[in-house]
Design goal:
The chain contains 17 helices and 2 strands. The chain is mostly helical and 365 residues long. The chain starts with a helix and ends with a helix.
Length: 365
Amino acid sequence: MDDGAAGDDAVGREAMDAEQRAAEAAVRYAVRLMSRVLGSFTGFVVGEGWGSQWRDGEWHPGVRSQLLAYTTTGLITFGWQRDHGLPSSPADTVRQALERWGSDRGDLAERQIPGWLHEEAVIHGRTPVPVETIEALRSGLPSSEDSTLAVLRAIPVGVLGAAGFPFVREMAMAVAALTHTGPRTLATAALAAQLYGAALEASARDDGVGLVEVLTDVLDSRPLGDPLRWRLEHLLRQDPRSLRFAAQRPAPEGPDDVLFAALTALLAFPGGGQDSWLGAIRSVVECREPVGVRCLVGALHGALHCPGYTPDLEPGVPEDVRLWEEAFVVFGDLASDLVHSILATPGGHSEDDERADEWCRRYPA
């Protein structure tokens, strides 16, 4: 190969690398912006959001949190309804969201949406939201197959949609970004989203795909050299007994550890079916509390306490019960109480449901 051809190849590779870096940067930008918009919803739920204040020993969500919570919820609801063949439109859902937020504040909401979104963009150094996007949020777009994604792209968060993900996975990826901020944990958020999206798809297919199959598919899609890929490979190589010992280690401290501790426990104690690991991954993805015991216990609650799961309490296999209990000892007395509650009602869930629900109300993950 002559010097000219080699030079052309080098230029071509540099251009491809630059294009790839630009695409990755665009995805990161889109996830961050989506996380801020959808973060208002989580902010409304947990009391942390734009305009929130700490008063009288508790969080009080601000007006911005409430407004964007219901508006965003309306847009997401429309996407779900469209994907499931239910009649609706963005205009209807946004209008319903504003009505739920309070008719006495509806006029204020319509006046303030442009200013708030513009302010948020300017504060964080992002491109201000276009006027046509504001009008789309106010009046809704004409109902069409891509109308919801058009709203999201205009915000602009459409890079996620351009990646070819189904709507539900796109939203899951954005929700995952709510859990973590900063470059170090963005990969974990993306992995959690990928798992969540794969779990949702497997659940929708209802074809018996299990957690190992989902993890294997996700593993194959991770880039070589990714440290999270290495951890997935290591996790899948372990036998259940080794995983049971791993599940008894001290509570994790970082988001990577929380996610993998939940997956470890799910693989170590199979039997809950799709609902269990889907619920566990969802709990990890949606958790906004500082990572630690309550986050992990909340995730594992989905693994233990789900329809159709009945622990084997036959007299001949007490070892299983002991392992279940020991796996939770390190997570504190509250988690231990929950496990005892779940194991206390073999073959039924009515009384167990009430205990677990009360536990979740008192100690939300």
